[in-house]
Design brief:
Layout: E1 8-15, E2 25-31, E3 57-65, E4 68-72, E5 77-79, E6 93-94, E7 111-114, E8 117-118, E9 121-122, E10 129-135, E11 138-143, E12 146-155, E13 158-161, E14 165-166
Antiparallel strand pairs: 1-2, 1-3, 3-4, 3-5, 4-6, 7-10, 8-9, 10-11, 11-12, 12-13, 12-14
Length: about 170
């Protein structure tokens, strides 16, 4: 699909270490395609002194036209730290027309859920299991005393979880 004349490409790097809270923006840029079509190369400049080696950073992007999101990344592209690359190719998927590119196209974003029943059987009253979709492409939650976090892709009525980080009570 050809980009319209008023298209703007927005690319940014954020700290995604804490899946329960939005992370700090490390770098961002806006690109005016000026008639060029995808793929369009980009470069983000950031202050290396602002990078914490223990944190996880991700590149995300959106293409806007008429103030609406046409396409956006739906998964995190990890970069810079923890053995991740400093160069990535991004795949953007058709958006839902939302206005906030940092929000992505996840209709569950900003919501938290508590398990009340599984397969028609009520959850145990003294065990709380939750899942939160705090940031596009990121999930976190707990099941009793254990916690989990990671990435998820939401497509239509399907949620596909990427490998999750888990804590385990011994």
């Amino acid at each position: 699909m050809a980009l319209p004349q008023d298209a703007t490409i927005e690319v940014w790097i954020t700290d995604v270490s804490d899946s329960a809270a939005p992370g700090a923006m490390l770098a961002e840029t806006a690109i005016e395609p000026e008639g060029r079509q995808v793929p369009i190369p980009f470069e983000l400049r950031y202050d290396p002194a602002a990078v914490n080696a223990d944190h996880t950073y991700a590149v995300k992007a959106a293409i806007r036209s008429g103030g609406q999101i046409m396409f956006s990344t739906v998964v995190d592209y990890y970069v810079i730290t923890q053995g991740n690359p400093t160069a990535v190719d991004l795949l953007l998927q058709r958006g839902t027309g939302g206005g906030d590119p940092t929000a992505g196209t996840n209709p569950l974003q900003g919501t938290a859920w508590r398990v009340q029943e599984i397969g028609g059987t009520a959850a145990l009253a003294d065990v709380e299991a939750t899942i939160e979709f705090a940031e596009a492409g990121r999930v976190a939650g707990k099941a009793s005393c254990n916690q989990f976090a990671g990435s998820a892709v939401i497509s239509g009525e399907t949620i596909t979880f990427q490998p999750l980080v888990l804590t385990r009570e011994s």
